[in-house]
Amino acid sequence: MKKTRNPNTLTLKESRAIIKSNIREMKRLEQIKRQKATPDQFTTVMKNPENVLEIDNLQTCFFTDNGVVRSVNGISFEVPKDSIVGLVGESGCGKSVTSLSIMQLVQAPQGQVVGGEIRFNSGDLGVDEEGNTRCYNVVRMPTADMCRIRGKDISMIFQEPMTSLNPVFTVGYQIEEVYLLHTPDATKEDARKKAIEMLTLVGIPMPETIVDYYPHQLSGGMRQRVMIAIALTGNPKLIIADEPTTALDVTIQSQILNLLKKVQKECGASIMLITHDLGVVAEMADYVVVMYAGKIVEKGTVYEIFDNPMHPYTVGIQKAKPSLDSNASSELYSIPGNVPNPINIPDECLFKGRCNRRCGKCTGTYPKEIKITETHSVFCHLYDEEKGGE
Question: How far is CA 142 from CA 57, 104, 220, 223, in A?
Answer without folding.
Answer: 20, 10, 35, 32
